[in-house]
Design a protein that fits this description.
CATH class: Alpha Beta
Number of helices: 6
Distance between the termini: 35 Å
Radius of gyration: 15 Å
Number of strands: 4
Strand content: 5-15%
């Protein structure tokens, strides 16, 4: 998956937000070819540098699969730069958790999660259980007839993101 997967819903997101769909370094797409180490701060540093270069201090993040892992990792390391977090089939949450329970507990921003009951790549049940235990205010979307590649939920994501925008006005 890369930034092109967002093309179908880009117009709707762009009607309310400035949208940047970036390809993950080392993954298919227009980013550079070198893949970074998943351990350490490489991805966080890359994303923070990108935000600084385009002049964004704080943003909403929507990520799917590895992009969900990246968004969550960024939110843990740079919480002041994240308004809201939408995780779609995020890696690193279920059976083999890459994030510590305490890291999840300390997330200050609103979080919405979308998982598919039929996901054969990741443990949706494990992800839901951890979110309920450590981030009880998380908006959980347990999609019964979905697998790992969850698409066509732009309306629900927009409602979640706009909720904050309306409350701030």
């Amino acid at each position: 998956m890369n930034a092109t997967m967002w093309l179908g819903c880009m117009k709707e997101y762009a009607s309310q937000f400035h949208v940047y769909a970036v390809d993950i370094p080392g993954e298919p797409g227009k980013s550079f070819e070198e893949q970074m180490e998943l351990q350490g701060a490489s991805y966080v540093t890359w994303l923070k540098d990108l935000m600084d270069k385009i002049g964004i201090h704080k943003a909403h993040f929507v990520g799917i699969s590895l992009g969900g892992w990246m968004a969550l990792n960024f939110a843990i390391q740079c919480p002041d730069n994240v308004k809201k977090l939408v995780l779609i089939s995020p890696s690193g949450m279920g059976k083999i958790p890459l994030f510590l329970d305490q890291q999840l507990k300390e997330l200050p921003m609103p979080v919405s999660i979308f998982v598919g009951e039929k996901d054969i790549m990741l443990s949706s049940a494990g992800t839901i259980q951890r979110m309920k235990e450590f981030l009880p205010k998380t908006e959980i979307n347990d999609l019964k007839n979905e697998g790992h590649s969850i698409v066509n939920h732009t309306t629900e994501i927009m409602e979640f993101l706009m909720k904050e925008e309306k409350e701030e006005m």
